[in-house]
Amino acid sequence: MNATPEPAPRAPLVHPLRVRDFRLLWAGATVSLFGDQFYLVALPWLVLQLTGSGLALGTVLMAAAIPRAVFMLVGGAVTDRLSPRRIMLATAAARTVLVAAVGALVWLHVVQLWHLYCLGAAFGLADAFSYPAHQALIPTIVAPGQLPAANSMVQGVAQASTIVGPAPAAIVVKRWGIAEAFFIDAVSFLFIIAALWRLPERPRVPPGAQPVRRPKMWHSISEGLRYTWRDPPVRSLVLIASAINLGITGPMMIGISTLAKLRLGSVTALGSMFSVISAGALAGILLAGAVRRPRRLGAIFLATTTFLGACMAAIGALHSLLPVLVVLAAMGLGGGFVNVHVASWCQARVDRALLGRVMSVLTFGAIGLIPVSYAVAGALVQISLPLMFFASGALVVAVSVVAAATGGVKAIE
Predict the structure, then answer these.
(1) What secondary structure, in 3-state letters, does 20-58 show?
(2) What pLDDT digit, counting tens, does each position of 251-308 carry?
(3) I need a labelling partner for 398 at 20 to 30 A (CA). Which of 118, 174, 231, 311 fits?
(4) CA 281 to CA 333: how far, in whole Å?
């Protein structure tokens, strides 16, 4: 009787950077993400230079946030039916033309506020399609076992770009001008376009396999919404995350931009503040990855949100750069730490068949309130900058206290 042959040992997975197609995508995305920081610094500075109005800045940011929120679920559905590579190529090309055009308008000294509204709306629409397309493209390039390392590299570069990019962007704006910053962003898009162009077009369905019939888009979305609502801890988390983004996202973007312009009078201060909060968030992410999920995670989450609210309220009373940088670094650290552990808790708790939809509900809850956050922050900053920071911080603290009383978040363990 012949002995059963032993199975051949599995070949070890190579690092994603040794995969040619992922290396191309990662390199192109790295340059493009770095270039985006020039846009993110130049745009608010240009709006404030044209208008001197925090309300105007809020409405320009709303012009991008509204189509991004409204069309995000549509972008995901379109990605599932078409090619994510082609969608990314189209959106990157459109962004290149738009940013270069606005840079030319600034260079010629004919830019007007309505140009920036159009730019913001177009960018928001492009984001709604490119975000899900990028997430869908990566699994077609690397093996399933390589996905954690690949996603870690992409997300790490995205976070690192927000640390490294704003300060040089501010220097370019200060020494050469706003138009040059827009041109740099336009050139950076050419790198991701070149990378995508060199990637082969992969079929959505393997050869010989029958296409899987998907349920109607709205039926899938409603199923995820029902699941989220019927799970009290997840429902509480969605509501708190939405309230936190209402109280922090808009006030942070508009508030520190206005603070840098009117109180500190320095674009380099603006770049430094963006970099510091991103550095704090990166440190929090790394710390969360190095320790086990803490016990009583729900209580820690509520304590952190209360701390974030208190920090927001305190910024309005600060009149020099160093204390503001310290507070922003602490906020980034706390937010980065709890975000990793809460997201991991959700991934472990939710039924895998519904995980993507439930996570999209969490993301949509945060994104959907961003336009309102910009509008409210823009209106409040016209009245008083300290009032805007205090009101936003008080909202976050109040929501945290109410959540602690209801008990839903305490079940997050």
Answers:
(1) HHHHHHHHHHHHHHHHHHHHHHHHHHHHHHHHCCHHHHH
(2) 888 888 888 877 777 777 887 887 788 888 888 777 765 666 667 777 788 888 889 8
(3) 231
(4) 5
Q: Which of 75, 355, 361, 365 is nearest to 225 (CA)?
A: 361
pLDDT for res 193:
92
How many angstroms separate the Cα of 285 from the Cα of each of 101, 278, 342, 361?
A: 37, 10, 12, 22
The tens digit of pLDDT for each residue in 151-200 reads: 667 767 777 887 778 878 888 888 888 888 899 989 999 999 999 998 88
For residue 256, the surrounding DSSP H or E stretch is helix 232-258
Largest CA distance in the chain: 89
As its CATH architecture, domain 16-202 has Up-down Bundle (1.20)
Report how far residue 21's alpha carbon sits from residue 254's, in angstroms, rounded to the nearest whole number: 38
